[in-house]
Amino acid sequence: MIKKFTGTITAIVTPFLEDGSIDVEALKKLVEFQVKNGVSGIVPCGSTGEAATMDEEEKKLVIKTVVDQVKKRVPVIAGAGSNDTQKAIKSSQIAKEVGADALLHVTPFYNKPTPKGLMAHFKAIASAVDSPIILYNVPGRTGQNVTAETVLRIAKEVPQVVGVKEASGNINQMMEIIKGAPKNFSVLSGDDALTYPLMTLGGDGIISVVSNEIPKEMSALTKAVLEGDFERARKLHYEWLDLMNINFVETNPQPVKTALALMGKIREVFRLPLVSMEEKNKAKLTEVLKNHQLI
């Protein structure tokens, strides 16, 4: 079976108007910018999309806007995660209803379920919605790491879970997943700076923050690895490493949204508790963007 998800998949930001409402027109333009520059998929309503501060109707609007703009050119993988399984199921049903091709489910935060609880969580979602699911392991946000053993058990027992977005930062753990995963299971980096090393070890791509700013270049990097051109991929990795890193000088998505505002693509508007960047960090970000002639 062919893997469903490879290459550069953008975890797209959610643009807001000055009054805090969804900037639908800016979102459409961002989606077009991504697709025309070669990305392999788009994730609306993830952490980068500030889904935590959006209500159900807003999430539905964002996902539908992305789906309608994409027009089936690339897969849309809707963020639908929750630490309440019933909410996760409802969000998944809404995402499927408006046309999402797949779902991204962060492992339940705060509750910190056992491996048995995680299995039950993903089985419940899969039994309620027949969409492909990517498991999102991000210990820095959830407070709990999902081990390679647990990921592989879920992949085996819940076939709808067809991939993992791995943001543990633990390369050994990622290698164990790659080594033991089913052939159709995608192992995607959750950290831009680890895309190249993970893919050289057999990973399949990235769910990316930096591709909001540089979709063409990030797509070229992952395409080069998938085609076996490791020298070109390595060159692109180091060329853009400073931008990858500066995007995390403060909590994501504060830097990437600030960068996109400086690039003239969105307004610099966040929802509390996220706020504007510290001036010293914004200055560093601005310098990197200027060095790359992005502004």
User: Uncertain spans, ≥5 residues at pLDDT below 50?
Assistant: none
Mean pLDDT figure? 97
CATH architecture assignment name: Alpha-Beta Barrel
CATH topology: TIM Barrel
Q: In which range does the helix fraction lie? A: 40-55%
Whole-number tally of structural domains: 1
Q: If helices are DSSP runs of H or I spanning 4 or more residues, what is the number of helices?
A: 12
Given this structure, which CATH class is correct? Answer: Alpha Beta
Strand order of the largest sheet: 2-1-8-7-6-5-4-3
Give a count of the beta strands, DSSP E runs of length 2 or more: 8
Strand percent estimate: 5-15%
Global geometry:
globular
Largest sheet: 8 strands, parallel
Tell me the CATH superfamily.
Aldolase class I
Structural class: alpha/beta
Give me the strand/helix succession.
EHEHEHEHEHHEHEHEHHHH
End-to-end C-alpha gap: 43 Å
Radius of gyration: 18 Å
